[in-house]
Amino acid sequence: MPNIEAQGRFRNLVVDRVVLEARHCCSILLRVPPEFRDLFRPNPGQFLTIRATVDGQAHVRCYSVSSLPHPDEPLRITVKRVDGGVVSRWLNDAIKPGDRLLVAAPTGRFLLRPSQNEAIFFAAGSGITPILPMIRSAVEIDHRRAALFYWNRVRDDAIFVHELRDLTRRFSDQFEFVEFYGSRTDPNQKPSICSFASRHHGADAYLCGPEGYMAFVRSALLVEGFPEGSVLEEHFARRGEVTSSEQPLSSIDAKAVSITIVCDGKRQEIQSDPGQVLLETMLSSGLTVPHSCKEGHCGACMVRLINGEVERLSSSALSRRDRLKGLILACRSKPASAELELSYDF
Amino acid sequence: MERIGKIDSVYRYPVKSMRGETPSQIFLSFSGVYGDRLYAFRSPAAPPGFPYHTGREHEDLLLYQPRYRNYEQTLVPPNLTEAEALAPGLTPVYGERDQFALDIITPDGLVLSVESPLLTKDMQMAREDEAPVSLAFSQVAMTDCRPVSLISLQTVDTLQSELGSPVDKRRFRANLYADLSESGGLVEKDYVGKTIKIGDKAVVSFLERDPRCKMICLDPETADHNPKLLQLVAEKHDGRAGIYAAVLVEGLVKTGDPIVVLT
B124 and B131 in contact (C-beta within 8 Å)? Predict the structure, then answer.
C-alpha cells in the first residue's frame, strides 16, 4: 500500500528515457528511487499528477500510468500532444533523459474489479494509456479472459499496437484485440462495436476515450443488455486541472475550495468542501440561489462557470449549447479546482 | 356551480418537445388530449426513469413543426359518436398508428416523415453525447407527469410583470390556456383539488401545481434559451406555474368554452 501520509506530496523523479509511441505521442519512463518504490506502485488504471513550470507558469496535469507495477518495469506515463496543450507539448517536445519532474503518488478509481469475469475494454486514441496496464494485469496476472476494441481515426495515431498484438500472440486463447480505424461517423463503427459487445455478454466493461465516444459505446452496451453497473468509465477531463496553483488537488484541505459567486453585479466568496455539490454549499452558506428539483432534471440551478474546474455528475437538463456557453448545473457539479468563480449574470 | 372563466385556446403537441398546434377543438380523454404527445424520441443515454430526448438537451426541437397527414381523423377517436350513442361514459377506441401518420417540417424547411431515419440521425447529432435516438409511438400521451395541463393568461401576465419583459404563453406548452377573468382574482392554483367542468361535457380535477423545467426558458419562435424565467418561477413560485389535471369525464373542448367549478 502506498504511504498514505506521503500521498499528494510531490517527489522529484528523474526521466530515464523518452520513447516515441505514435504520431504526436511519447512515453516518459521515470526512475523511482528505492525509498519511493512503495509510494509509486500504481494500481492498473491509475494516474500520476505532474507539476511542471513552463514559461514561468506552474501547471498541474494528470497522466495515466501505462506500465505495470513490476519491479523490473520502469514507471511509465504516456502523453499525447494536445493542440494548445501547454504541458503535453512541453513533455513531447522538450523533456529529455536526466530532466526531473515533480510527481505525486498515483491515484484514481478507474480500477479492475476484483473478479474472474471476462473484462472487455473500449479505448479510443490516448484512452489506451490506462487501459493497457489493466489488460495486462487481467491477462498476465489474473489469467482472466479479456478483449479490447480500440478505435483510432488513422493507424498513425494508434498507441501500443505492437505491444497489444504481441499480447494477442502470447495469449491467443485469452485475449482478443480488435483494431478499428475510421472517422467518428464511420457507419461501420456501431455495428462493429455491437458485434464485439455481443460476443462478450456477462463481461465487465471498461471505457476510456473522448466523452462522445464513451457515451456512444455506453449506449451501445446498454442496448446489448449490459447492466449499467457493469460499465466503468475513465473521464480524463474530470481528473481536474489546476493552473497557476502551487497545490495539487489531492493535497487541498477539506475546506480549502474557494468559490466566488457573482449575482446582479455583486461578488460573494464562500468556502466549500470539495466533496459537496455546489448548490448545497451555496444553500448551506445562507445564499438564496435559484433551484428546484436538485436532481439535474429541471435546469433551474443553471449557472455559468467563469473560472476553475468542476466535476460534472450526470444530468439531463444541459444541452451541448449550454455547455459551450460554460453553463453548469449547481446541483450536479462538485469543485475540481482550488478556486471557482460562478456567475448568475448571464 | 361557479363560472370562473373561459377557454382562451387549446393546444396539442403531436411530438414531445416539438412545436404545438391549435386545433379547432381537442378531445380530453382519460389518458390525455387525443393526438397529444403520441410521438417522442428516446435515448438509452437518458435517465431510465425519463428516457426521452427533449428540448432540454436539444433546444431546436421546438422549431420542428409536426403535421398530421390525416388531420381530421386525429381530432377525435374514430368511434366516439357510436360510443356515446351506446351508453354515456363508454370509453371510445383510440385510432391505430397509421391514422396518426405524421410529417415534420424541419427548421430549414425540409419535410420528413416522423419515421425518417434522417430525423433520428438529426436528433442524435444534436446530443452532446451523440447517443443513439429512436422514435417511440404510443396511443396515449407521453406527457411528463399528468395527462392534461392548463395555465391561465392571468398567471402568465403575473410572471411577465415580475420578470419585467414579455412572456409568450406558449413557453408553458399547456394543452389548455384559460382566461380566468371571472374568478374574482383567483387563478388556477387556487382551484387545486376542485372538480371543474369545461365546455358541455368534459370534467377534470385540478390535481396539483405544475413543476417547471428548462423548457419554459426556451423561446417558442427561436428556441433561444433565457434562464431568467425559470429562475423567477423557482424563486417566487416554488418552481411551479400552471396546473396538472386528470380527466373525470371525457369530452371535447374548444376556444370560448366556459370553465365552471362543480365542487
Answer: yes
Phi, psi (rounded to 5 degrees) for B119? -70, -45
Edge-to-edge strand list for the sheet holding B251-254 = B32-33, B25-29, B251-254
Using CB atoms and an 8 Å cut-off, which of residues 123-142 of chain B contact chain A? 126-132
C-alpha cell at A258: 474557494
- Cβ–Cβ gap B231/A215 under 8 Å: no
State the cell numbers at B170. 406558449
pTM equals 0.61
Residue in the structure block whose three cell numbers are 493535497: A251
Closest CA relative to residue A287, chosen from A257, A266, A318:
A266
What digits encode the pLDDT tens for the residues A108-150? 878 888 788 899 999 999 999 999 999 999 999 999 999 999 9
Cβ-based contacts of A300 with chain B (< 8 Å)? 212-214, 227, 230-231, 233-234, 239
SS3 of chain A: CCCCCCCCCEEEEEEEEEEEEECCEEEEEEECCHHHCCCCCCCCCCEEEEEEEECCEEEEEEEEECCCCCCCCCEEEEEECCCCCHHHHHHHHCCCCCCEEEEEEEECCCCCCCCCCCEEEEEEHHHHHHHHHHHHHHHHHCCCCEEEEEEECCHHHCCCHHHHHHHHHHCCCCEEEEEEECCCCCCCHHHHHHHHHHCCCCCEEEEECCHHHHHHHHHHHHHCCCCHHHEEEECHHHHCCEECCCCCHHHCCCCCEEEEEEECCEEEEEEECCCCCHHHHHHHCCCCCCCCCCCCCCCCCEEEEEECCEEECCCCCCCHHHHHCCEEEHHHEEECCCEEEEECCC
Taking only the tens place, the pLDDT of each residue in A177-216 is: 999 998 877 888 888 898 999 999 889 999 999 888 888 8
**DSSP 8-state class, residue B161:** H
Q: Of the given ranges (A15-19, B124-128, B178-182), which has the lowest mean pLDDT? A: B124-128
Reduced to 3 states (helix: H, G, I; strand: E, B; else coil), residue B228 is helix
Q: Taking CB atoms and an 8 Å limit, are B227 and A291 in contact across chains?
A: no
pLDDT tens, B209-242? 999 999 999 999 999 999 999 999 999 999 999 9
Query: What ipTM does this complex have?
Result: 0.83
Question: Which value, in Å, is the radius of gyration of the alpha carbons in chain B?
Answer: 18
Mutate to test the interface with B, among A189, A316, A324, A345 (most CBs of B within 10 A): A316
Distance CA A159, CA A153 (A): 12
Separation of alpha carbons B199 and B257, rounded Å? 5
